Fold alpha-galactosidase.
Amino acid sequence: MRSTFSAVFTIFVTLSVCAASPFTKRAVTLPPLNGKFDYQIGGPYTPAADVAVVTRDNSASPVSGKYNICYINAFQTQPDAASFWQSSANAGLLLHKSDGSLFEDADWPGEYFLDTRTDSNRQAIATILNGWIDTCHSKGFDAIEPDNLDTFSRSTNLLTAADNLALAKLFTDHAHSLGLAVAQKNTGGELGASGKSTAGFDFAVAEECQQFEECDSYTDVYGNNMLEIEYTDNGISAWNAACKARGSAISVIYRDRDVVPSSSKAYHYQEC
């Protein structure tokens, strides 16, 4: 249920401290409740003056004076990072089918699932992700949005929710040690409260929860600490229903599927 985007994926070769190291959680700041949200993972642009919360790809920079969320693809790869993930050092971190081929996302060609089934893999993946989180922190972001937590539900039973949550716990602990909040991105219906209780997520970013009738699975856990995106290719009825149900309590936005910059003819943005 995530959006398409074509932002440049930057490989950070400076890795963080070992993911197995103990971390001390620092106080984190959550997004302002019902602060107007702008979702810019398809490319950065100047947000409206009244926008309070902005999500951008980790290759971009945060916006001064806003609450900034740093997007990372945490459970599968980006097409332009193929050489990094398929290198001899990292190829063992990719999920393979029984025939030996890589497990490719059926909807997103060139994106391959990460193999979270062993502790050694999770530690190695977390070390890479923690390096990206370090860069988000050094740039001045306030929070992390790790995408594709739901690969376990799309892996024909090769991956499990428990293993993905174990990986999430590693990088969430690291982010917390830097004072960064971490969002649960989607997967509310599958995980219930375990995203918060097991991985330690602090708030939710939910795509199309009205369309798929699962918004309560987020509000039941995170209350109004939630940001919602509905997409134009689903039609306006879901967004109208979301605004009626939650628009007075949380920021609900209506965006084009590719979340393109405002300079593009395909750009669309509305907020309740």
User: Anything to note?
Assistant: DSSP finds seven helices and nine strands in the chain. The helical segments are 82-85, 119-139, 161-177, 188-191, 194-199, 216-222, 236-246.
